[in-house]
Each structure stands twice: as C-alpha cells, then as structure tokens.
C-alpha cells in the first residue's frame, strides 16, 4: 500500500501524464512543493518502478517523473546518489524516459554534484551506457563554466584508457565532447586521427566540425 505523503506531494500522484517536452511545470509555484519535501520526493523515486512512467500506465505512475524533476528544480543535491542508483536498478531497466531526462536533472542540481558524477563514471562495475548519461551532465557543466573543461577531458582520458576497445562507447563520449569544440587537446586529435571510434555511432557533423576547426587534415 502506498505511503501517505504530505498534502502537496500527494498531488503528484494525480498531477497528470508527462512527455519529453523541455517545458516542465514549476513544481514549487504550481504545487507549493519545497525543499522541506525533499525526503518524500527521494522516497518516491527510490521506491517507484521508473519503467512505468510512460504512456499507457495509470496516472499515479507518473508521480516518479514529477518527483525527479522537482528534485532538480529544488537543487536537492543529496538526491544525486539516489538518482544514479535508480539508473542502474534492475527494476528500472526500461525507464528510457528517466535516462533521457536525468542529465537535465543532474545539471539542475548544480556544480556540487560533480565529484559524485566522476565517481560514478569511474566505477568499474557500472556499464558504459550508464556512464554516458553522467558524462553528458559533466559536459554541460563545462559548457556553463570553462573551469571544468580540463576536468571533463581528464575524465574522458581515463575512460579512453580503460575502454579504448569499446569504439561505440568512445564515439558516444566524443559526441558529447564535440559540444565543447575541444580543438586544443592533442589527445582528442590523436584519437580522431587514428580512427579510434565507431564511424556508425559518431556524430558526423560534430566530427567534421572538429576536424575543420583543429585543421587535422
């Protein structure tokens, strides 16, 4: 039986279905959800089957999506471990909407979670497709503040050293790095020059732009 939550949080279970639109409700403004509700929001994410937050399920299943969005908007940094744990939880293996929205939620949480993201991507037992999601957030932080650019490149270099035999993974990481136009990094140029990526997975426009900007050929 579902736990009884505070009046404002209970409204999430009837708030309605969602889609992958970039326009999220302002939960503080519309439902009066505040930081005092953080533990309840975290519990909803932790206990829900996030694979259910898709079209075709009952309205109450969408409470989890509202909850993780609200956690981001409220900048509840302590939720980062719960959100990352939910990402790799077996019961959430079909939670494709969560995977899609999680980078945005993580960025909303703010720069303080960067150490948690780096720890996650360095964890050898985490599958690489999950690491990409955290890496996307790291790149967005670097786009917001250039002080984090070297941080991202160093993280990429660590991953490349361990996963250079996984060209699809490397391609997906490079696709994110192309957003930074990292033409000053020789290590990236060498990877491109030596074709150490999967051409089928690489962002062709990003690749061509990088080659042009870096005058690689």
Explained architecture:
- By secondary structure, the chain is an all-alpha fold.
- It is built from twelve helices and no strands.
Summarize the structure.
The chain has 217 residues and is an all-alpha fold.
Order of helix and strand elements from N to C terminus? HHHHHHHHHHHH
Mean pLDDT reading:
93
Structural category is mainly alpha
Specify the overall morphology. Answer: elongated
Distance between the termini: 63 Å
Helix content: 55-70%
Contiguous runs where pLDDT drops below 50 for at least 5 residues: none
Q: Count up the helices.
A: 12
User: What is the percentage of strand-forming residues?
Assistant: under 5%
- How many strands, which pairing sense, and closed or not: the largest β-sheet? none
Radius of gyration: 19 Å
According to DSSP, the number of beta strands is 0
Descriptive terms for the model:
57% helix; elongated; 12 helices; 217 residues
Topology of this protein?
Layout: H1 7-10, H2 27-31, H3 38-47, H4 63-73, H5 80-88, H6 96-109, H7 114-122, H8 128-144, H9 149-163, H10 167-177, H11 186-193, H12 204-214
Helix pairs in contact: 3-4, 4-6, 6-8, 7-8, 8-10, 9-10
